[in-house]
Design brief:
Mean pLDDT: 94
CATH topology of the largest domain: Glycosyltransferase
Structural class: alpha+beta
Number of strands: 36
Low-confidence stretches: none
Length: 722
Amino acid sequence: MNLMGDGLAVLGSRIGLIWDPSNRKSFLVRHGAHPGIPLEIHAGIKIKDKTICFPLSLENELFGFLDQDNTPSTIKLSGVDPETGIHVKLTVRIPFRPRDFEFSTIPVLLFDVSVERFSSQFRWTESVKDEKIEGKVFIEFGGSDFTFAKNQRSIEVSYTSVVKIPDVSGVDMGNFEPLNIKSKDRIVPISGSFDGMSIYQNFSLARGEKSELLSAAWCTYDPPVLNVIGDRCPFLYLKKFKSVDDVENWILSHSDELRETNTKVDSLFASHNLGDSVTRMMSYTLHSWLINTWLVERPDGRKWLSVWEGSCYFHSTVDVEYTQSPFYLSVWPELLALQLDEWPYFGKDASVLLGDSGKDLLFLSHDIGYLSECTKQYYPHEMEVEENANYIQLAYAYWRRTGDDSLIKKHEQFIYKLLNFILACDTTGNGIPDKGCANTIDDASPAIQFGSEQVYLGVKAMTAVRCGIEIFKHLGKPVADYENFVKKAVETIESRGWVNDHYVVTLTRTLDGIINPWSGEEMSGELEGWDAYHIYTSNGIAIMRMVGMENVLDESRLKSDLINSLVHTKGKYGCRHTSYVNTKPTNLLVPGLAGSAPKVGWVSMNMIRDIAAAYHGVDMFSMVQNYWDWQVTSNSQQVFMFFETFYGNNLNFYPRGLAVFGYLEAALGFSLDNVSGHQSVDPVRNSLEIPLLYFANWKEGKAPVVRSSDDKIKITSSIEKK
């Protein structure tokens, strides 16, 4: 695997590591901005008077050959000294086991360094013949931001971690008050010798021999940092640990358990045959998500999960979490439940947009905070219809996937007000919202970004109303108005949204009366690109198929739209938002938030499209290689972690790539509705072998596996216990 920037962090506990081997840098992930606090990692071997290291600091000679690998819960660098045939591996590990909050939040990083000698020479290199090679393997840490002090059995690490407190008036990229966290971490030798600042182990290796494992842990323990609705809340791990001493004692007695868990969990994630690019993308996007997570406990004892929006630092942006929901639904639904219980705190009075017709209705804010604060929306403009539809769909999907109706009961009135807001935003009566249409695609042309009567929002809103119908039927509420809305929406999309061989971007063809959400100015004139090909028709359908909701659009048209939009928008690294290319200079630039470009595209939105396509019998999974190529191209030059945007814009360190986890169920055409008890499998290709992670026993590392085959009539499948 190419040398490239990568990293990982403990779920919600704000401790992690990011490395940038191309620039010989590494960083400690803590509370502040990505990539973190510059950290020197000196790890390698000393043979006689020669020191050879991994490219994680600017000092010392590098190994003559370097390789890299990752799994969901590890990152690894391998180095070979050709002259001696010594092979060294540095593996960084985190405690991660889906659906296990206690284990997965333990604030510790484990560093393992293994050494072996090849049984023959490396390639054609002339090396030392038969005598043993003697030397020392070591790991040391440094950096000008840290103070290291020798303890009796460990190294005390003192430093200041800084996260910013934004002004309550909104996002002003230059108006922050620093929150300084005085950190006192601990580096703990697990195996090997310790001379005060270096953890090392001597070796003497004949050909084919291995040395004992060298191991050390970085432990932390923090005061409350995240402000949740007025309270700085303690990290969740404080329920288990009372000091950094407790964390140290845990890792000293549980390092083997951590390694064994890594093996079981990582093997299960990789036990599919969709290809290495899918496996690598799953690992890489999980890493990028983990570095953005915060998991704390509120004063009443409830867990609070929020996820930074990568380089934008907004907390739990609804549309971002919507795109990540294939991971939550298939791997860890409890994480989605936490956020579904949090977003209702941030509903807004709909009369701000709709006047009297919005009275007693609500729309949902784009985000729930920024940087260190979960107190309000900070994004500069609203995305009213989109975020309402996203919440309703997610609440429905969680209910149908798990069978747990407690959230839809608890938030019945909130859902009611969101749903009726969607209906009120259709002022023409055709079932397609024409108010509140600005959306998350904030670097696209006006048509796709905030055009009135968008097909994308029309389908997503219609689908959300279908979800509302089922929710309110379950709760014993009337649904006739909602059913009528859905009927009109489908009729309008099919009669006015279909042109030749695809669904268009918008039903309207002018900008007249549309408000630019960035400037607040009313626009007019031709709406260029209204009839373009785009990849968003199916965006509001993909997740619903995972829980068994049937498609109500014309099936043959939807397939045609999926195929033709790919043909007309495909580029080197994925598909652009739309086939329309704006030849005029663009001037949208909000530093740290949004930019614009003529051909920009988003990787995660491509993934959601691929998922929808598979559920409709169209196999687009080969596109994942394009997406992975973009990650490698970007991160082999400078560390960005998951880089969402290509051909323009700058969304990096982004969590939204978790959408790729939906590939596993989508390839199988697997749907699970635990309310009706219905399960179905309809594979998109034969010869598949894919685990059903929703049913996984993560402690044992086992899950049912679906295998598909071609019986010359149709693709069939069987489910086997593993």
